[in-house]
Amino acid sequence: MAGNSFGTVFRFTSWGESHGPAIGCVVDGVPPLIPLSEGDIQPYLDKRAPGGSRFVTQRREPDQVKILSGVFDGKTTGTPISLMIENVDQRSKDYGDIKDTFRPGHADYSYMTKYGIRDYRGGGRSSARETASRVAAGAVARKVLGEDVRIRGALIQIGGMKIDRNQWDDAEIGNNPFFSPDPSVVSGWTELLDRTRKAGSSLGAIIEVTASGVPAGLGEPIYGKLDADLAAAMMGINAVKGVEIGDGFAAALLSGDENADEMRMRDGKVTFLSNHAGGVQGGIATGQDVVVRFAVKPTSSILTSRKTVDVAGNDRDIATKGRHDPCVGIRAVPVGEAMMAIVLADHLLRHRTLGRG
Questions:
Q1: pLDDT confidence of residue 283
Q2: pTM of the model
Q3: What residues contact residue 121 under an 8 Å CB cut-off, 6+ apart?
């Protein structure tokens, strides 16, 4: 199976399945002498971990990371960093009834078509469980970026209910189970998801990830554009069906004079008067905040019976058992942050090969 690696200079390869003994990744391209410990990685895995609230899957995984290689005396050695996360709360029996039936909205049918075999236990390799590996790699990427680059993800919409941007408060993001920057929407989302879960269904969401302190000049003008790589990174997250940079699709509704990010000199430096481009122009970072949003579809595993077929070509109806997120977009917030960090770290190291930065 190809397609298990991401990045050019900072590059990681993830491995493992949802119901296997462990998952993990190998991170390559990390410069030597960067302080790194399991304690630098664990807080980000804790944000993504299941079982954190009633609005996410109740699978109980501690997601304790182990560094197997690439670190000596608390510093990176410049060699591949191998990270492992053991699976401890699999319930493979929950999937026995659907081993010969394709779940609508899942990769079951497409996997079988491509490979002729699939791990039906939680989706195997296609499970969102794999994103824990990305979060671990993202934590390493943050160490490469350093403290000057700040990455912040937030949930801005569940179903049709959006946050009020006038109420945005970064400090609130960690104070609720939704990663919401708007405290006023939390009670509404709570009621909405409780109703949806009791009805046996699920909802989609939109996540916004912003990176501040990104050096100007990262990215390439043709292939390897910073925004193109960010789009690929976010689109590669499980259940993501749309990505936009800056104003994204809303830019199509603006006139040229409205959309232009005008500039002025302030204290001897170029200052932008707006950021419709999301911090990237011509594929290259401008030094402004890099802003990415992505849309996550409703969780495909639902209790409501749906029409499908089985491996023998028979029409079937199916309702998925097990412990599933009523809104998988909630736990996608730390995953989006991780992919932002990975792309930025990769482009920073690529930039340094030019003798810049």
A1: 98
A2: 0.92
A3: 17, 18, 19, 90, 92, 95
